[in-house]
UniProtKB/TrEMBL annotation:
Family assignment from sequence similarity: Belongs to the BamD family.
Gene source species: Pseudomonas yamanorum
Gene Ontology terms describing biological process: Gram-negative-bacterium-type cell outer membrane assembly; protein insertion into membrane
Name of encoding gene: bamD
Subcellular location per the Swiss-Prot or TrEMBL entry: Cell outer membrane
Annotated stretches, region: Disordered: 296-327
Name this polypeptide is given: Outer membrane protein assembly factor BamD
């Protein structure tokens, strides 16, 4: 079924591309005739023809009685014709030219509505796409544009609808942040995951994703062995969201299984052959590799070139693992930057 939908989309796109010819508007039409024909095209859903006539009306009669109305309806025609960039550009132009117009709130509303529907294209209508996992750029723009409308014109007829859409967009943006946090958990980027979870808790209050943000924080802090922060996040989660899926009989259950960092040889031999031992706390593979490279280079030095003391014994030098251990250095060593050590 999805293949049929994709074929239908391709056919419609090709048909639209082949039929997108520029319409020529009669130069002898008066202002009233242009406006009436544009209205007829809008009523018949012929938005391409309506756009051409509205542009002609605005350019031929820039100071006519229908000029302002033509600019407003041009925003609508572009929006309905699935041309979001043209619609937003027309809306911004109208707002810039007519900031005190009695219907300027309509331009703000259509601008936000264009961004709201920008991601809902043909694919989203025919395929089951999760909007919370897509790039939230258009959703964030739409939220900000609706916020401008509701703050500047709280009594506008479009404000109630804009507020409802803002609630939906806020929930969508919060869900997107949780998806990103879950991805960071699977990639063992626990600091980034904790930051995303805290961002949701701090900036998206009263959304369903706040409980998920607390769960992400708890899990990330547990992985980082930050017990105090993990306990605080868990207590907040239990107090405010006792029925959260991550809580089983009052106990926290991580949603992402702890990653297995063993080598492929160790996994296939069920641990009978360990290629590299597990890391001790605070140790990294990069640090171990540096120490090994230093030791290999040191062992490759011929014995007759190694430094010796007065008795002829080889002087053992400190390796890179001793760097940063300055507890035994004197004040004279600090003042001379170790030159006379």
């Amino acid at each position: 079924m999805q293949v049929k939908h994709l074929l239908l989309i391709a056919i419609l796109a090709m048909t639209a591309a082949c039929s997108s010819t520029k319409e020529v508007v009669d130069e002898n039409l008066s202002e009233v005739e242009l406006y009436q024909q544009a209205q007829t095209d809008l009523n018949n859903h012929s938005y391409t023809s309506a756009t051409a006539k509205l542009k002609a009306l605005e350019s031929r009669y820039p100071f006519g009685r229908y000029a302002d109305q033509a600019q407003l309806e041009l925003i609508y025609a572009n929006y309905k014709n699935a041309e979001p960039e043209a619609a937003k550009s027309a809306a911004e132009r109208f707002i810039r030219l007519h900031p005190q117009h009695p219907n300027v709130d309509y331009a703000y509303y259509l601008k936000g509505l264009t961004s709201f529907d920008q991601d809902v294209g043909l694919l989203a209508r025919f395929l089951p796409l999760d909007m919370t996992k897509r790039d939230p750029g258009a959703a964030r723009d739409s939220y900000n544009e609706f916020a401008q409308l509701t703050s500047r014109y709280p009594n506008s007829r479009y404000a109630p609808d804009a507020k409802q859409r803002m609630i939906y967009l806020r929930n969508l943006l919060a869900s997107y942040e949780i998806h990103v946090a879950d991805y960071y958990l699977t990639r063992q980027a626990y600091v980034a995951a904790a930051n995303r979870g805290r961002y949701v808790v701090e900036n998206f209050q009263e959304t369903p994703s706040v409980g998920d943000g607390l769960a992400v924080m708890t899990e990330a802090y547990q992985r980082l062995h930050l017990d105090a922060l993990a306990a605080t996040s868990l207590e907040t989660l239990k107090l405010n969201y006792p029925d959260h899926p991550s809580l089983k009989d009052g106990q926290f259950v991580p949603q992402v299984a702890e990653a297995d960092n063993r080598s492929w040889l160790s996994k296939y031999t069920l641990g009978l052959i360990e290629s590299r031992p597990p890391l001790p706390p605070g140790e990294t593979r990069a640090n171990q590799d540096i120490i090994k490279q230093y030791q290999d280079a040191k062992d490759s030095i011929p014995s007759d070139l190694k430094p010796r003391d007065e008795n002829g014994d080889v002087i053992e030098e400190q390796g890179p693992q001793a760097l940063g251990n300055n507890e035994d250095r004197s004040w004279f060593s600090y003042m001379t930057f170790g030159v006379f050590d």
